């Protein structure tokens, strides 16, 4: 039994930090607001009797001891950072559902054999510092600590400096934390559960992603006296490439997705034909072969467009992870919980990357999804139903209990 | 007779202020570098015996007196501000060719009946503060002084504040300056003269322009779990619109041009489907009917794309001027000079806007073009031949002399 009202109040309390006029959150990683959110979370955990430690990349671990201190911890967690125009639940729900599990175990005097760790991972969104999932990535040995501390935001500010500035550069070694299992509750961030009127998504894994950066170079010239046929317009070429990127996902079909999220035009003057355009590309597919096909289509089509227009294309791999299955045993704990509780449910593959994806490389992992309104996420209007929040939290509690003994 | 070597040295001297590594200039309007360039120009004019005054919008007037102080001045001029990645000659050539005319008249003891004014117009490029041609625009009553002083750059800095800061907020009333005629020498900024191996372009007028701002609004959502068919991707729609803008000029053909120079994507995060895209559009045509047709095509096609993709389009008129003929009598002075000097020449319509376009609304006006290398302008590689610079300057001197008596 968990306290759904308390969970909701806690969510709303944290949603006051970085609130936007449109009802969302802007609490970018390692800003003053992120510090404020972290501080509040740490206070709540300490009030719940947990011991809080911070590792070298700012990941926060709140421990509820078990009977057997030698067993690796059964872990829950997610992230507290948001997109620039993000919602109140993405990541935050998973963290605070974990806190509610601990609070309700306390209320009911439940002891577990293994210790329970509630984890906040640093910079999951990849919005301020890119790529995403940096805290979990370092912890799981995907990135080196030095590499990640040296990543800069668009203003050139170093991640490591910001970590120190907000007081979350911890001393605990970032790798080697003993995790016996990891559960992450999260909003679906897509429309499937809502459309099928299903309360819980039993997440069997996450689809693969490939991120790129494209730089198209042409020749700057005057927007007036330069005849169309003599132009080498980097932006006109980039626009056709952007259309091609969209077409790739449409042609491949199924669950294929393609997105261009960022664009920079140089020199960015109204009457100058752009000489250079930079943009990002995000390709996704749960089917590894289809994702490889999308990658090949991307390279071929963008190169052909550049060629035809006498433009230079530099297409670099920025980040990627393969389709990642979760641990059947842990997924089984989630499934048994929803069945026992009589919650409507379906298996689902995560469309987004999550810290769970990196954790799954080293630790048995599972995720629990709840529906979100209109399938909207990475949007200030992101919303969930309190009863779904409570159901997901109850399933998380069941799964943790089943694993921690 | 003018001194081509001195003109070239003067051009190279001014090109040291704001020089870029690629051999161009970045001397945006009303920056410290613009002040430095203006100060050097003022010193040169005073050394040449001119009286220098500055008007309320920062336009600089260097006067060489005539025998008859009651006659309105015969004027020469252009601008000293550049694009962010501009060249060494755009605008600057016209100003320094005018200075060389004054210097050589001094050397040869030439007196004119009318006074001669050499003018530097403020913020011609429209790069830092947009639209272009603001100094000449206020002087000719196209814009009010208050409106222009209140225009802001992309950092929100006010034009009027920058003018005061660099010490070029003058006291002379900006309208009502007595101009009897205006000649502006300029590089062609296009490929025509070079392609035909012609030394001088006799400019009969300037083609019309229409500038717009487009804002496309869709719905922000997550780049992963949002299926392609449920997206309202403002950038995917904007990319198709950008292609349509290019296609309009290609379809209308002839001298039609269309350019998108600036793009801003919101929220500009790699894994967020953009909810809003803003971009600028620049349409040009020497034929007024064809320009009107392009305008109609733009409105219709962009609206149809927005409609089809369930996006909202806001298309606003930002700036425009109609095709502008220059004064036949003054154009005749230019033509007679090139003929007498045996320079190869052709009539040409300016593809760019120039201060001359606004001046022509109130004052008899003509322009003189010289070729530029590869037709390149608004590019750091912009270049001209010293002998062309000298020829254009000599023609300017002839035309001024023929007009000033
Ligand atoms: N949940 C989430 O937004 N994660 C960031 C990585 C991704 O874009 O999938
Ligand atoms: N010469 C020049 O670049 N003028 C600015 C206005 C235009 O873009 O035509």
From TrEMBL, chains A, B:
<dbReference type="Pfam" id="PF01546">
    <property type="entry name" value="Peptidase_M20"/>
</dbReference>
<dbReference type="GO" id="GO:0016787">
    <property type="term" value="F:hydrolase activity"/>
</dbReference>
<protein>
    <submittedName>
        <fullName>Hydantoinase/carbamoylase family amidase</fullName>
        <ecNumber>3.5.-.-</ecNumber>
    </submittedName>
</protein>
<dbReference type="InterPro" id="IPR010158">
    <property type="entry name" value="Amidase_Cbmase"/>
</dbReference>
<dbReference type="InterPro" id="IPR002933">
    <property type="entry name" value="Peptidase_M20"/>
</dbReference>
<comment type="similarity">
    <text>Belongs to the peptidase M20 family.</text>
</comment>
<dbReference type="InterPro" id="IPR036264">
    <property type="entry name" value="Bact_exopeptidase_dim_dom"/>
</dbReference>
<keyword id="KW-0378">Hydrolase</keyword>
């Amino acid at each position: 039994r968990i306290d759904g009202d308390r969970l909701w109040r806690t969510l709303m309390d944290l949603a006051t930090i970085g609130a936007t006029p449109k009802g969302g959150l802007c609490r970018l990683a390692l800003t003053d607001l992120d510090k404020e959110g972290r501080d509040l979370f740490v206070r709540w955990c300490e009030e719940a009797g947990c011991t809080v430690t911070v590792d070298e990349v700012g990941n926060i671990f709140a421990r509820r001891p078990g009977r057997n201190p030698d067993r690796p911890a059964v872990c829950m967690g997610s992230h507290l950072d948001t997109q620039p125009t993000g919602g109140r639940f993405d990541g935050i729900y998973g963290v605070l559902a974990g806190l509610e599990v601990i609070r309700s175990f306390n209320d009911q005097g439940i002891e577990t054999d293994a210790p329970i760790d509630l984890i906040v991972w640093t910079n999951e969104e990849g919005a301020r510092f890119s790529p995403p999932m940096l805290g979990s990535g370092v912890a799981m040995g995907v990135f080196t600590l030095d590499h990640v501390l040296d990543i800069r935001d668009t203003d050139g500010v170093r991640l490591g400096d910001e970590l120190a500035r907000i007081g979350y550069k911890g001393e605990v070694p970032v790798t080697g934390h003993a995790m016996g299992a990891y559960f992450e509750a999260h909003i679906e961030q897509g429309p499937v559960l809502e459309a099928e009127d299903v309360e819980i998504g039993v997440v069997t894994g996450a689809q693969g992603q490939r991120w790129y950066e494209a730089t198209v170079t042409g020749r700057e010239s005057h927007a007036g006296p330069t005849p169309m046929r003599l132009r080498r317009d980097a932006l006109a070429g980039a626009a056709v490439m952007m259309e091609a990127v969209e077409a790739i996902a449409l042609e491949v079909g199924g669950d294929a997705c393609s997105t261009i999220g960022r664009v920079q035009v140089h020199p960015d003057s109204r009457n100058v034909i752009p000489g250079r355009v930079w943009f990002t590309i995000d390709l996704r597919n749960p089917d590894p072969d289809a994702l490889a096909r999308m990658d090949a289509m991307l390279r071929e089509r963008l190169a052909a467009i550049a060629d035809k227009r006498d433009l230079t294309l530099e297409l670099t791999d920025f980040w990627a992870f393969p389709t990642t299955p979760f641990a059947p045993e842990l997924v089984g704990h989630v499934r048994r919980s929803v069945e026992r509780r009589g919650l409507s449910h379906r298996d689902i593959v995560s469309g987004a990357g999550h810290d769970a994806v990196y954790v799954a490389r080293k630790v048995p992992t599972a995720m629990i999804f709840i529906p979100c309104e209109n399938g909207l996420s990475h949007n200030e209007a992101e919303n969930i139903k309190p009863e779904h929040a409570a159901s997901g939290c109850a399933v998380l509690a069941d799964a943790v209990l089943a694993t921690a003994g």
